Structure formats: structure tokens, C-alpha cells
Amino acid sequence: MHRGMENPVQPGRPRGTVPAPLRYVSRRPVIDLERVSKTYGDGATRVEALVAVDLHIPAGQFVSIMGPSGSGKSTLLNLVSALDVPSDGRITIDGQDIGALDDDALTLFRRRKIGLIFQFFNLLPTLNATDNVLLPVMLERAVTPDDRARALAVLGDVGLARRAHHRVHELSGGEMQRVAIARALILEPRLILADEPTGNLDSATGRSILELLKKTARDHGTTVVMVTHDRTAAEAGDRLVLLRDGRLEGDQAVGPAAAGGA
Ligand SMILES: Nc1ncnc2c1ncn2[C@@H]1O[C@H](COP(=O)(O)OP(=O)(O)O)[C@@H](O)[C@H]1O
Ligand SMILES: [Mg+2]
Asked: Which of 106, 169, 207, 256 has the most CB atoms at less than 10 Å from its CB?
């Protein structure tokens, strides 16, 4: 269970003092998959990439997803980000049945609520790192000096302060990955979906990115869903979900929560 959700009343409060108002913490899942299936192709090429998956993720949880290659991990993220539609079942994000939205509404929904960290997803090679980070802002409104300052700060958080004015095509793969991460964070999304975010990074940079995701979940209540091959990376999260052949095979607490700490 997510930290702080179980027992919000602080012990040891002196009698007769007025309690501080309890911070409202929603128990409603922010991501809700009900019997979600995805089938590609038909006849001889038919692939059941996901089979009747039920998954409920509360706000602020950091969930890692592992499973063998081809087990449906990327399919799951594509469905939750509404880049693809399920063959069957229902997906609700932050109370919205995303199957009920048309394409334009989905585009806005995705841009405003979801930070996607997919490999080099839509980075524009001719723009510099800062302008790539600012893309989600540019699509919403005119960029202000505050936005530029925030973009530089987020680039600093991912260790790219000194690459802020480099064009993307002048960056290494790992640096591009970090630009994509900074861009996913710029609008402080409710939800971050990451497919192998540390896959191209050296281990020190990878660790700092995991710390940044953890901190974002902890400080802002952002929900994080991260696909990874790396068990150590997975343990940066609160919960580990295992997929095999398109089915949920395991679901357990990891990290401090699993050790009985929270
Ligand atoms: N666009 C597609 N068309 C046909 N089959 C696909 C497509 N995308 C994925 N698949 C198949 O669906 C299964 C799950 O794929 P994927 O979700 O990418 O797995 P993972 O990310 O766990 O490696 C695989 O068998 C894959 O070949
Ligand atoms: Mg994949």
C-alpha cells in the first residue's frame, strides 16, 4: 500500500488541540484496467498480446513491470497511454473512460495528463534540448520566461544542464533519452509512463533517473508505471507486476514497502 494512505492520523497529538485538516488522499485507482485484452492480426498471424488483464493502480504509486520479451509490456503501456486501443475490456485513467474519447480529446488528454518516456519518442532533431523539453508547453500556449527557467531546471535534474543548447542530433543516445525524460516531466503530469527509461544509460545516470522518478512520485503524488528488464531498477518502485504471455503472473510489493517499512 502506498505510503501515507493507511493511517493518515498522526499519533501522539496532544489532547484538546485542533487537528490539522487531513490531506485528502484518493483511494480511487488512477489507472484502472478491467479485463483488458489486445489481439494483433488474425488467422495464422494472430497474437494475443494481452489476455483479460485486471490492474488497479492508486494515485502516487510507482509500479514496475517486468516480463520476458514479447510478454505484452509495451502493449500495456501503449494502451494505458491511449496510443493504441484494446480489443476488449475497459481502461479508465483518472476517472475518465478513455475508450469514450475521440482522437482530438485523446490528444489533449494525453498531453495534459501523461508524461511519456518512450525511446526518443517524437524528439525533434533540429531543435535544441531546451526547445524539445518545451514542446508540450508550446503545444498548449506561448512559452514564458518561467517556462524556460523550468525547462533548464528539469534538464539540470536529468544531468543535462550543459547540453541545454545542443541540438538533439548532436547528443548521444543516453542524452536523448534524458531529454525525453525532461520533456515528460515539464508539465508535471499526473501520470508518467516509461518504457525502459534507463535502458540506454550508464549505471550511475540510470540510478539518478530512477531517483528522480521516485522523488516525483513521492513529492508530487505522480503515478509512475515503468517497464524494465532490470530487477534492481524495478526495486526503485513500490510494486512489481510480472507479465507472461500477456497475462498477469505476479504482483508484489517491493522496496521499503516490501521490507515492512511502510
Ligand atoms: N503492432 C503489432 N502487430 C503485431 N504483433 C505485435 C505488434 N506489437 C506487438 N506485437 C506482438 O505482441 C506481443 C507482445 O509484444 P510487446 O507488448 O511489444 O512485448 P514486450 O514489450 O513485453 O516485449 C509480441 O508477441 C509481439 O510480437
Ligand atoms: Mg517492449
From this structure: 106
